[in-house]
Specification:
It is a single chain. By secondary structure, the chain is α+β, with helices and mostly antiparallel strands. It has two domains: 2-145, no CATH class; 147-209. Helix content is 37%, strand content 28%. The protein is built from eight helices and nine strands. The chain has helices at 19-24, 89-96, 121-134, 147-152, 158-169, 181-188, 192-212, 217-224, and strands at 2-9, 25-36, 41-49, 64-71, 80-86, 100-102, 107-108, 112-119, 139-144. Strand 2 (25-36) and strand 3 form a beta hairpin. The longest helix has 21 residues, at 192-212. The model is unreliable at 212-225 (pLDDT under 50).
Length: 225
Amino acid sequence: MREVTLFWKRHRLALDRVSVVSDIFEKIVFMGYENRTNKVVSCFLRGICKPGKTPWDLNNTDDYLVKEILTEPNNFDPAWMFIAELRHPLNMVSAKVGRLTVKPGSCLNEEGLFYILRGSPLSIKIVTTAARMMLKPDRISATTISQTDFRGNQVISDKQMEVLREAFNSGWYNTPREINLGELADKMDLGRSTVSEHLIKAESTIIEYFLHGDPSLLDDDLNGE
């Protein structure tokens, strides 16, 4: 799996239809999807508006539709939390391409727009090409996501990682499989049901991570505002 960050300087956003977001918000962070199909992209957002602006101002454009305000600014937190439907062409391309997700933590801040993609190299290439056609990014950086990303963020437990690694090294994921569940359990000195449970939970978590991003980022992003 690959991770690519597309970055546009804030002043250059005036050249694209995303400029309305820059006009309304000082900062805005993508928190995760509320609903995502190849026709509808609805997500949770956290934003600090410029004076005199509110998230409802997004409804003055065809590219965004605020559906619900979850929290308003108060004495303790200057941010709005809300759900909005995204209709910008780049958002729709990202939704229609399989094996790809926009990572929670993608944001617009005082520097500019950070649009972080995770997925297969081909899927990322398609979206990156589309982005270049719309407004060439000022910077593109790429990294490879390894198993340490999952372990370091505690997305899966150390034991799940141990079982997953042993299963991979023993040929469990080869076609055809080179080891059965009983042999894998004996090799690790664990019960069949224990190994099966670890594999199922780890695989389920990684698939969720792949489709919807890293849930551990949510609290970090809030604290970092």
